[in-house]
Design a protein that fits this description.
The chain contains 9 helices and no strands. With 152 residues, it is mainly α. It has a domain of 106 residues: Tetratricopeptide repeat domain (Serine Threonine Protein Phosphatase 5, Tetratricopeptide repeat), CATH 1.25.40.10. α2 packs antiparallel against α3 and α4 runs antiparallel to α5. The longest helix has 14 residues. The radius of gyration is 17 Å and the shape is elongated.
C-alpha cells in the first residue's frame, strides 16, 4: 500500500480517462498516514476531477491541497481557473498572481491573468500580459486565441 505507487497509478488512470478509478487511488494514497506529500494527490485528484467538469469536487480537492501546501502551483492555477469561471475575478486574480510569483509563468497562467484583467477592465495589466504571452509563447494556443480575439 505504498502511497507513491498509489499516486502514480492514479495519475496513469487519469491520463487514460479512468477518472473514477484514479480518484480512488489518490484517496488511498492520502489516507496513508506515512504519505509525505498528500497535497500532491489532492491536487492530482482535482485536475482529474476537473476533466469531468465536476467543478464542485475539483474545487474541494484544490482547497485541501492548498491547506496542506499554500504554495502548491497546480492547485493555485486550477483554483484560479475555477474562480474565473465562477466570476470571482478578484480571487482568481490573487490565485494566478501567487502562482506566477512562485513559478515561471506559463502560457496558460498568462492567458488566465490576461482574461481576468480584461474582465476587470484593467487595460494596462491586460496589455502587459498580452506582451508577455507574445514574447514568451508566440506559438502557443493561448497566443493564437489572443490573436483571434477568442477570450472565452
Amino acid at each position: 500500500n505504498d502511497p507513491d505507487i498509489n499516486h502514480n497509478y492514479g495519475v496513469f488512470l487519469c491520463q487514460t480517462q479512468r477518472e473514477g478509478q484514479a480518484i480512488a487511488y489518490f484517496l488511498q494514497a492520502i489516507r496513508n498516514p506515512l504519505y509525505a506529500a498528500p497535497w500532491k494527490s489532492y491536487s492530482a485528484a482535482g485536475v482529474c476531477t476537473l476533466r469531468t467538469n465536476n467543478l464542485k469536487d475539483a474545487e474541494e480537492f484544490f482547497k485541501r491541497a492548498l491547506r496542506l501546501d499554500p504554495d502548491e502551483p497546480i492547485s493555485l492555477l486550477s483554483l484560479g481557473q475555477i474562480r474565473y469561471r465562477q466570476g470571482s475575478l478578484d480571487e482568481a486574480r490573487k490565485l494566478v498572481s501567487q502562482h506566477n510569483k512562485l513559478v515561471a509563468p506559463s502560457a496558460e497562467s498568462l492567458w488566465l491573468a490576461l482574461r481576468i484583467e480584461r474582465k476587470l477592465g484593467e487595460r494596462v495589466a491586460e496589455q502587459s500580459y498580452a506582451n508577455q504571452l507574445r514574447r514568451r509563447f508566440p506559438g502557443s494556443p493561448e497566443y493564437q486565441a489572443l490573436q483571434r480575439g477568442s477570450f472565452d
